[in-house]
Write a structure and sequence with these properties.
Layout: H1 4-30, H2 42-70, H3 80-91
Helix pairs in contact: 1-2
Length: 102
């Protein structure tokens, strides 16, 4: 079972990627790092860069969900003290007929 540190680490990495990938895509288009795309009109270049940025975020989310589903799902055992207290509270009788306890 994954520890809380591993879960936080995966969440942190996914969060960073959701910020970095779209910015890297926008930077790459603005500085012509992708060859062959310089001949596009600014309108289509803006559409393409926005579409790719949104797709990159969705890819990160899908990857994060996949990693979460891949984790083992061992059956959780509740705390025995909590169970004992819950059973005791259920067994307590309630006052009947609207009588008030003082």
């Amino acid at each position: 079972m994954a520890t809380s540190a591993q879960v936080v680490n995966k969440f942190f990495i996914a969060s960073v990627l959701m910020w970095v990938l779209p910015i890297a895509i926008i930077y790459g288009f603005q500085h012509n790092l992708f060859p062959g795309l310089a001949n596009l009109s600014p309108y289509y270049q803006t559409l393409l860069v926005g579409f790719l940025a949104v797709i990159s975020i969705n890819v990160v989310i899908v990857f994060y969900i996949y990693m979460a589903m891949k984790e083992p799902s061992d059956k959780h055992e509740p705390d025995p003290t909590f169970l004992a207290n819950a059973k005791a509270s259920i067994k307590q009788t309630k006052p009947e007929g609207g009588e008030k306890e003082e």
